[in-house]
Amino acid sequence: MKREYCTQMEAARKGIITPELKKVASKENRRIEEVLPLVAEGKIVIPANINHKCLDANGVGSMLKTKINVNLGISRDCKDYDIEMKKVMQAVELGAESIMDLSSHGDTTTFRRKLCKECPAMIGTVPIYDSVIHFKRDLKELTAKDFLDVIRLHGEDGVDFVTLHCGITRKTIEQIRSGSRKMNIVSRGGSLVFAWMSMTGEENPFYEYYDEILEICREYDMTISLGDACRPGCLADATDGVQIEELIKLGELTERAWKRDVQVMVEGPGHVPMDQIAANMKIQQTICKGAPFYVLGPLVTDIAPGYDHITSAIGGAIAAWSGAAFLCYVTPAEHLALPNVDDVRQGIIASKIAAHSADIAKGIPGAREQDDRMANARRALDWDAQWTEALDPTTAKAIRDSRLPEDDHSDTCSMCGKFCAVRSMNKALAGEVIDIL
C-alpha cells in the first residue's frame, strides 16, 4: 500500500502520526501533540529511511534528550570487518543512538548493507568517501553524476542520514588560499570536495545539484546532515569568517530542503574555546532557524592527544546545554589512529556523560531520575543498586572488586573503610555505635 507521505516532515505537516513519531514521543516522555509540530517545523528530525526495517527510531532536537553518534568504519590500514561489527554492537549496547559508517576501503557496500539490515541505531554515511571506492576511480576522474549515484545507492541500502558538504563553493577556495587560517580545512569530506573543485575547475557538485539531491533524499526519507567543511581544526580558527560564511550558506540550504519536506541537521565545530561555545550554538540556531545542531566535540584545547575524549566531553556538555542536539563522540585515538574496541568504549562513555549532564541542566523531563536513584543507592550503601544505575557498571564494579577493603566490605570501600562518611551517618542517625578501630 502506498504511503500518504514521503518523509517524516511531510507526514507531520499533514497531521499524520507515523509509527516512528509515536515511538519518539514515548521515548522522550512527551505528548504526540508536542512533538508533531516540531517535526513539521524542522526543529526535530526523525532520521528513518524507509528501507531501514530494523530501525529503533529516535528524534534529534535540542528540546529532546541529547543523542550521541559513534563513528566507525574500515580503513586501508585497519580492515577487519568483524572488529568493526564488534564495535557496532558494543556501541548499541552502551546506548549510542547513531552509527556513522566512515569506511574508506574494501567492500563498503556489503558492510553498509549489513549495518542497515542488523543495526537498530540510526545509520549515517558520507557518500563522497564511498564514491572513490565504489567506482574504483580516483577523485579527479569522478563526475557530479557519480556523486549523486552514490547518494542514491546509500538511500536504497537504508542509510538514515548522509553528511553532504554542500556549503563550500569556489569562493571558499580563494578564502582558504588567502592563508588566513592555521589549519585550513580539517574535514575529510570537505577537503575532498575542495580538492575536486581545485582539480576540475568546477563548482561543488553537492551545491550545484542540491535540488536533485533533495529529490533523492525525499524519495527514501533520508535526512541531510549539512557538513561543515570549514569547521575549525584548532582554537585559532574558531568562529572565523570562513566558518561563519559557510554557516550562512547552510542556513539557506536548510530552508531550501524544508520547502521539499526534506529533514535537515546542521553540523558544527570542531575546536572551539569554552568561552565561544555558547555563542556558536546561538549563532547556528539563529541562522539555521532552529534546525538540530550536530557537533563534533567541540574540543576545548588542542594539546591533549590521547585524551581528546575528555576535551570533547567538556565541550560537548557545554554545547548541548547551550542548544546542540546531537554529539559526535570523540575517542582517545582522535588525531592519532583508527580507534580500537576499548577506544570506542571510552569515547562513548565520555560522550554519554556529556549528553546526560547537559540534559539535567536543560531540565529534560526525567533526566535526573537516574541520578536520584543512584543517590538513594549510595546512601543505603547498596552496591548492586549502584551498578544498576551506573553508565558503565562493568568498569565501576571491576574497580571496586579489584580493591576491596579488608573488613566489612559489604558496606564500605577501600578509600575510607570504617571512616566512611555515609556509614558513620547511617549509624549515627540510627542511634548505633560507630566503630572505627
TrEMBL record:
Name of the encoding gene: thiC
Protein name: Phosphomethylpyrimidine synthase
Gene Ontology CC: cytosol
Residues holding [4Fe-4S] cluster: 413, 416, 420
Catalysed reactions, semicolon-separated: 5-amino-1-(5-phospho-beta-D-ribosyl)imidazole + S-adenosyl-L-methionine = 4-amino-2-methyl-5-(phosphooxymethyl)pyrimidine + CO + 5'-deoxyadenosine + formate + L-methionine + 3 H(+)
Cofactor(s) recorded in Swiss-Prot or TrEMBL: [4Fe-4S] cluster
Cofactor: record remark: Binds 1 [4Fe-4S] cluster per subunit. The cluster is coordinated with 3 cysteines and an exchangeable S-adenosyl-L-methionine.
NCBIfam families attached to this UniProt entry: PRK13352.1, thiC
